[in-house]
Amino acid sequence: MVDTPTEYDESFEEMEVEDDEFDRLIGIVGDGVIGVAGGLVGTAMMTGVLLIAESVGVFSRESFAELGGLAGLEVFGPAIVIGYLVFLFNGMVPFPLLFAAVMEYLPGERPPVSGMAFGAILWTGFVIVFYEGFGGLGLVLYVGLTLAAHLAYGLGLGLVFEYLATRPDSLV
């Protein structure tokens, strides 16, 4: 005997479609949280390396103050704090979104390796924008430590993407 679909079965199928749409929305929000978490970890790792660079005299936190001034946000608080918050926001929102969009086109079979390539790409802009006229050994240290900072950012971003993407309920 062949089962014929009933009116109840059809409405049940429609409910499944709605649930799939809901799951997709939840997945999108979840993926956004993964990006923010990855950006936070990556930016924290990058900040650690930049603090080392500052301790050897080849980077200055005043660069963050200039970043806050460029954004016109210095009226909301100390320029260094506002500048660092702008830096943190960029590391947590637009850059992880960009990484998620281009990750499959970057070299490396795993997200941490792709993340390091992504960090190296971001470094090309950073190294020019935050350059303060170093020469000799200072220039070598500046280039090396800022590159290391960006590789650390990409590594942290990629590790979080990889870890959270392998969770059973993730859509990344």
Automatic annotation (TrEMBL):
Pfam families linked to this entry? DUF6789
Q: Where are its TM segments located?
A: 33-59, 113-131, 137-161
- UniProt keyword terms in alphabetical order: Membrane, Transmembrane, Transmembrane helix
Q: What is this protein called?
A: Uncharacterized protein
Q: What is the lineage of its organism?
A: Archaea, Methanobacteriati, Methanobacteriota, Stenosarchaea group, Halobacteria
